[in-house]
Amino acid sequence: MSKTELFEKGLKVRKEVLGENYVNKSIAGADEFTRTMAEWSTEFCWGALWTRPGVDRRTRSIVNLAMLGALNRPHELKLHVKGALKNGLTKEEIKEILLQVAVYCGVPAGIDAFRNAREAFNEVDAGS
């Protein structure tokens, strides 16, 4: 598969998970410095990885929430909380994942993850 095909596959999945408005805004906001990273992440994260068989999107969302909570990456965590809801996770399931982050990665990481997840829930509920 060519680089262009992987990018297009990735773009489709990225829009389905994160929302077309967010992705379009993100792409439009890329400049000469950030464009390569935006294209690379779309091609490899979304095109090469998220389209692989064997693990469904719901499971990928679970893994991402745990990793992003553990790494304390608030911006990406909020995005992926919203994506996890689209991929079929419930708020209760997300809560349980973040409790596990708190136990295994430390309470401060868990507290930040909960704070960011709540912000994501509020944005989803407000239609943002």
UniProtKB/TrEMBL annotation:
Molecular function as annotated in GO: peroxiredoxin activity
Highest taxon in the source lineage: Bacteria
Gene3D superfamilies, sorted: AhpD-like
InterPro entries per UniProt: 4CMD/NDH-1_regulator (IPR052512), AhpD-like (IPR029032), CMD-like (IPR003779)
Domain Carboxymuconolactone decarboxylase-like: 37-118
Record SUPFAM superfamilies: AhpD-like (SSF69118)
Listed PANTHER family: 4-CARBOXYMUCONOLACTONE DECARBOXYLASE FAMILY PROTEIN, CARBOXYMUCONOLACTONE DECARBOXYLASE-LIKE DOMAIN-CONTAINING PROTEIN
The protein's name in its UniProt record: 4-carboxymuconolactone decarboxylase
Originating species: Bradyrhizobium forestalis
Organism classification: Bacteria, Pseudomonadati, Pseudomonadota, Alphaproteobacteria, Hyphomicrobiales
